[in-house]
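Hi U.,

Before I forget, here's the chain from the pilot set. I'm dumping it here mostly so it's searchable later in email.
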Amino acid sequence: METQTKTAIILGATGLTGGILLQLLLEDDRYGKIKLFSRSSVGLSHKKIEEHLGDLMHLEQFKEDFKGDELFCCIGTTKSKTPNKETYKNIDYGIPVTAAKLCTQNGISTYLVVSAMGASAKSTVFYNKVKGKMEDAVLNEKIKNTYIFRPSLIGGKREEKRTGELLFKQLMKVMNLVLVGPLAKYRSIEPDAIAKALVIVANTGYEVNKIESDQINKIAALSD
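Structure:
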């Protein structure tokens, strides 16, 4: 009897974590189709990939094609890349929340979204507050399997230059050595760890909805 393969949706496959996630899913026999929704093409030709290009600020336009078994949302920007607060909110709140609504409408039962450490709707820091409100709105959709990943500073090399962030990442490599015990969740985390953990949780579930950075690393280690 032929095993039924799943269809995964990725938002943010052109980004660092999303790109690694895409590669993992392409190599995973449990997935037969991977739908990518983005502004620009990932530039890969593969029998599993189905690309839908357009403005994700208007994600509703893709409703008819936005169907699958699991949704991975790796969308995110930064203060330096998107200094305008309204635009930042439209990306980091608007896209993940609209995606959650589409999950509800189209019967997608598993939604995994990458948020950030310190996210809280009650935060006095604008960026943390936006992430926190996003988390609350996503959970409010009551999708059967909802998992929010809350990584600390994400390592890895990006295409765009972020001098200040690069220096901080180098500092964090040193700090990681002393961040132990309860402080372990503040260590910087590699994008491949996040991607591995996303795949594992999508297929096995997890005991809590919100997964902190140190837990992400522990889950990722299960694949090694």
